[in-house]
Amino acid sequence: MPNSVLQPVQRRRRSRSKRPLLLITIALLAAAGAFAATQHWAFAHGKPHRSGRSVTLTPRPVSARSLERLRAAASEQQVAARAPFAPGTRLLLPAKPRLEHAGLPITAPAAILVDANTRAVLWARRPHQRRAIASTTKIMTAVLALEHLPLTKVVRVNPLVTRVALNREGLRAHEHVAVWKLMDGLLLFSGNDDALQLAITTSGSRGAFLHLMNEKAAELGLRDTHYTTPSGVVDRGNYSTAYDLAALARYAMAIPRFRGFTRTHIAHVRWAKPTYAKTYVNKNLLLGTYRGADGVKTGWTTIAGHCLVASARRGGKRLIAVVLHSPDPYGDARRLLNFGFANS
Questions:
Q1: Alpha-carbon distance 137 to 190, whole Å?
Q2: What is the Cα–Cα distance from 81 to 222, expressed in whole angstroms?
Q3: Domain over 91-343 is classified CATH 3.30.160.20
Q4: Enzyme catalytic residues
């Protein structure tokens, strides 16, 4: 019998979809996870979620040793980030050398010995004579870098740096290097490329950094000092005196991080490929051979001759010796330091 349009048709019942139930379950789980994460963050930061019941947080005990370590680290960061002496402080006393009449067999035409603790000049020869100072210039470069840059800052090497004259450690254009690695290269290896890169990173350009160097010299009262290079590779117009270098060394050695670099004899540093690793050997031959030696910087050019700014500490007493254009820089420095420890 044919179906009539009036004949009722029995419709097939569809099974109800479980998809809405699944979505609701997922939403509830996500909400619970978000709530748990919020609570975890709040407890970790000392801000518990407000509910009907009050929550009491019990602080974790910190050992005295850990607390002391944290305080020391914070203090070091503060000192490294600012000048170690108040503005206007005389770095050395203007009085005559206490032991100026002592006959010392010093070969350098200009030299000085100072007590870094008392600021007293113990012995001097032509202390205010302006002379070329070679790579002892890098003391000022390092000081300014430490006062303006975080050691962990990673910088991109400027191509100009790779073309600097003479002593280079071999920085590659556009490679990324941490500031502390540049400081190792500057103060241990005495790299002129490290000096220029730190100058550009600190001030934006070589010229701006030279202005900053001379401004800092005036601030520290270094009246017979003038810089025309961040590295000392250029002698023309770049000069200082034994007196000013001793004063600058006293300022620099009051910065813990500066001391940390200058007293390092050998540094093994990891590097990005294709270099992988570098080893820096400090050019200061007093380290490891003279008791208490912990800095500061060597230098040499044809015009400046051999220059040495030396620091040594024994029994809480720190002495700084500077010899310029010396035929025997290490012999002169040893004789001055020995004399100072024996007579002060």
A1: 10
A2: 21
A3: no
A4: 135, 138, 190
